[in-house]
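HUMAN: Can I see a protein plus its fold?

ASSISTANT:
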Amino acid sequence: MTRMPPVAVGDGLIDATEKQLTSHPRIGPCCPEYPAEEIRYWLHRGYRIVYEIDDAAMQVHVLRFWHCSKGDWPVDLS
């Protein structure tokens, strides 16, 4: 199995996330770790992408990419 360079993996992840969330921002369920309904997540190729929907600005802000093989992820998004 050939490993992709980290930059290519990151670029592909960003591209896929942008494409999916631009057209379907509410595709992901709400994050159970956060009380805000605007904070959601989407699973893509072993990554958990945590994002926030800003309806007023009509934007989606990615808060974190986390590879699921790393186990539990840090809840602090700062």
Q: What stands out?
A: The chain has a mean pLDDT of 88. Residues 6-70 form one domain.
